[in-house]
Amino acid sequence: MRIAIASGKGGTGKTTVASNMALALANAGSCVTLADCDVEEPNLYLFLPGGEMGVEEVSVSVPAIDKPRCTYCGKCADFCKFNAISVFLGNALIFPGLCHSCGGCSLICPESAIKEVPRRVGIVKRSKPRDGVELITGVLDGGENSSVPVINAVKRGLPDSGIVIIDCAPGTSCNMVSAVRGCDYCMLVTEPTPFGLHDLSLARDVLVKMGIPCGVVINKSVGEDGIIEGYCSAQGLQVIGKIPYDEAIARAYSMGKAALYEDSNLARVFSCAYEKALKGAEKP
């Protein structure tokens, strides 16, 4: 069972749901693989520190020009739609940060003067912070403009079976799509506000197009969640959990502590949400 935790915007509580659900399931005797695919701002390790097991670099392929062979015909620059190569006045420049690693320039070069070389864009860290939980964290290097290669590297390290929880990047960009793709179910975390509703609807629309079943977790609930519940009812979405607005939870988060240890009822909330996600993933 592979579950993605996503949201239409940042700060809604994705990390709270991902970390506490993993801990609730582990405390009940399950083994959980937790993947932090919010690679621009990974922070699950703050709540699950220690147990480091190893670090791997993530690289992408970028072109390198063999200048003695190059005739500066410019076909590579004409082919590249991302302006990663510029050829002018008998010179050629590569802009690695713009390259999408398609390899097309090396294929089209009539002189075979372009080869591909690796360029580091991030790392993947593995740890086992406690019994029953393995954490895989992707970290994008500073200044890089595409998270997708690091997200894909994290997902390549996930097991094919068992419980996998993926903390996605916020929003509905390619980062979120890459993290959610291939999951059995997606939990959309939102807040009962007009902004929360707007971004929830965007995320739900993306998942509908991807054909991934989803449900909603309302965070910071004060018991007046009609704005979200009305939308969910109209769209056929199930509200699979509610996390109360509680100062103790916010204080625990700010100190890097799991919320379920502050409120004994929360373990049940996260376990029930998981059970509902299981049933939601089984529906045709």
TrEMBL record:
PROSITE patterns, per the entry: 4FE4S_FER_1, 4FE4S_FER_2
Domain of life where this protein originates: Archaea
Gene Ontology terms for molecular function: oxidoreductase activity
A matching Pfam family: Fer4
Domain 4Fe-4S ferredoxin-type: 61-90, 92-119
Protein name (database record): MinD superfamily P-loop ATPase
Organism of this sequence: Methanocella conradii (strain DSM 24694 / JCM 17849 / CGMCC 1.5162 / HZ254)
Classification lineage: Archaea, Methanobacteriati, Methanobacteriota, Stenosarchaea group, Methanomicrobia
